[in-house]
Amino acid sequence: MDVPGDATRLRDMSTEEAHRFAGRLREFLIDGVCATGGHLGPNLGVVELTIALHRVFDSPADTLLFDTGHQAYVHKILTGRAAGFARLRQTGGLSGYPSRRESPHDHIENSHASTALSYADGIAKGRHLRGESGRAVVAVIGDGALTGGMAWEALNNIAAAPSRPVIVVLNDNGRSYAPTVGGLAEHLAALGEGASGNVFADLGLAYLGPVDGHDIAACEDALRAARDLARPVVVHCRTEKGRGYAPARGDDAELMHAVGVLDPATGTGLPAAPTWTDVFAEELVALGEAREDIVAITAAMPGPTGTALFGARFPGRFFDVGIAEQHAVTSAAGLAMAGLHPVVAIYSTFLSRAFDQVLMDVALHRLPVTFVLDRAGITGPDGPSHHGMWDPALLACVPGLRLAAPRDATRLRELLREAAAIGDGPTALRFPKAAAGADVPAVARIGELDVLHRGRRMPLDVLIVSYGALAPVCLAAAAILEARGIGVTVVDPRWSLPVDPGLAGLAARHRYAVTVTDASRAGGPGGALARACADAAVRTPVRELGLPGAFIEHGPRPELLAGAGLSAEAIASRVLADLDTGIEPVRAGDGVSA
Ligand SMILES: Cc1ncc(C[n+]2csc(CCOP(=O)(O)OP(=O)(O)O)c2C)c(N)n1
Ligand SMILES: CC(=O)[C@@H](O)[C@H](O)COP(=O)(O)O
Ligand SMILES: [Mg+2]
């Protein structure tokens, strides 16, 4: 695609030429994203708006921020990265979000929504303090991201800083994945249509709009007016998600918000095997049939979390609260106080945002809320701010919370029921973004934990403690070790928090124990087991295998897991090396495990 390497040529275009260019850019997006997967709908909706932004503002001298960043493909194309789209979201390829390493035009790498206005507030204040406030600070935020409370914390401060003006560009396409919920959505829709008030003006912000976000000249006029106002201002642009691509505007419920590889001619994708989310979605409906106290909550992600099925079946017991995870959790606490059993379906990575609410609004009151953490562990193409790798460490701090990691679909159903039956405190389940795969049967049950494989020799050499979906990998590692004459037992605790009381005793009957989890090692279940062994004066050394304490770049899930040493071969090699060299057992009171 012939794309101006910089915005100079873009600015020299007439409006008509710019619209023709927008058409070519749209075709480039459709062909490129259908070939790689990614956020097709959101980016088709901001083609003209982003062209107008780069014709009016001089990035990177002027700062352009994108909230969530999933809609920054056009920005990337206009800043010299069109060629990189052939490897979008692939190992070593272009990130699907802004990337500071890729370009000085990029600033926010975090794909968690509702943050851009706070960055803008801080940057504007910083520039003012350093006497550099001559340039514009522009933040593009979607109507969905604007349902996040943090955005309003920022607007409150931006409005109070007239000498450090921020230009807020509201990209209002009326949706997150699904139509944006709540009173704000209705208010935005009424603006310009005789609305009784204007929330932005009431906060003290200037308001320009609504503007047709697909009319380049109208966008440019509004953006120039905003720039010349020199005071905090909201430019309200109305756009269409998926614009210009019929399959995205057709029967697709989410207007192709996030797609896999598609046939560009039809917009159809490859058939996918049932996922963990599909299993959860069905079981939640079955649970809802059996128990009328079960209610479900999502933070603007009914489709991706699978709760849409429950919502269709029980519309009165289903709540989409918008991109408002903190509210979701504490509203769930309220529902539990009212005698219901809420199931909060939330990606692992987004739970981080509501940690205080889990700790102080749910657990402190010992409320029966069940958190279903989808996309736990390595997710893959969405990169470091999407891997769900910190929930075990965070939740290990929560008194009274029980965390389960099902190893397969049958255990997911089983553990969801067990969690829903617990009435004296919070529970959580975690599973990955992956096909659900074949069941992994147990050969025995010891208390709450499943024995997946018994070693052939006594005294047994190695105990592998497998958490969650990596059980097949652990069994394959056991086979490699047994081929080397090493006896191995593989167990799955099912509930990783609190530590199963039988695990330390089981470890005592082995020379060595290794824990395997698709989560950050730091604060993971392995450390808890090591300390439990130390406290029980069990001298068996415990090796913890998991994800490193680092931000892991985007790439295919299997490749990233292998890169973190979570393949059968890598686990077996680690065990063999430890057996050769020996590792010290954790001593009682030693907070650090091997
Ligand atoms: C804190 C948080 N929760 C959920 C998500 C998942 N998510 C990604 S994009 C999106 C919808 C964003 O809607 P909007 O801001 O209106 O942008 P649009 O896609 O419509 O351009 C959601 C819910 C997220 N990125 N961050
Ligand atoms: C941008 C965002 O947070 C989501 O749209 C993210 O892309 C999740 O994608 P999956 O639902 O495919 O995991
Ligand atoms: Mg939107």
TrEMBL record:
Q: Name one GO cellular component term.
A: cytosol
Catalytic activity line of the entry: D-glyceraldehyde 3-phosphate + pyruvate + H(+) = 1-deoxy-D-xylulose 5-phosphate + CO2
Q: Where do the annotations place thiamine diphosphate binding?
A: H70, S111, H112, A113, G144, A145, N173, Y245, E325
- InterPro entries reported in the protein's UniProt record: Dxylulose-5-P_synthase, THDP-binding, Transketo_C/PFOR_II, Transketolase-like_Pyr-bd, Transketolase_BS, Transketolase_C, Transketolase_CS
In short, the EC number is 2.2.1.7
The enzyme's first-digit EC class, named in words, is transferase
Which stretches make up the Transketolase-like pyrimidine-binding domain?
274-438
* Molecular-function GO terms, alphabetical: 1-deoxy-D-xylulose-5-phosphate synthase activity; magnesium ion binding; thiamine pyrophosphate binding
Which residues make up the binding site for Mg(2+)?
D143, N173
Gene3D superfamilies given for it? 3.40.50.920, 3.40.50.970
Q: Domain of life of the organism in this record? A: Bacteria
Essential cofactor(s): thiamine diphosphate; Mg(2+)
Keyword terms, alphabetized: Isoprene biosynthesis, Magnesium, Metal-binding, Thiamine biosynthesis, Thiamine pyrophosphate, Transferase
Q: In which pathway does it act?
A: Metabolic intermediate biosynthesis; 1-deoxy-D-xylulose 5-phosphate biosynthesis; 1-deoxy-D-xylulose 5-phosphate from D-glyceraldehyde 3-phosphate and pyruvate: step 1/1
Quaternary structure (record): Homodimer.
Cross-referenced NCBIfam families, in alphabetical order?
Answer: PRK05444.2-2 (NF003933)
The Swiss-Prot or TrEMBL record describes its family as follows: Belongs to the transketolase family. DXPS subfamily.
Name the job this protein performs: Catalyzes the acyloin condensation reaction between C atoms 2 and 3 of pyruvate and glyceraldehyde 3-phosphate to yield 1-deoxy-D-xylulose-5-phosphate (DXP).
Protein's name in the database: 1-deoxy-D-xylulose-5-phosphate synthase
Organism classification: Bacteria, Bacillati, Actinomycetota, Actinomycetes, Micromonosporales
Gene encoding the protein:
dxs
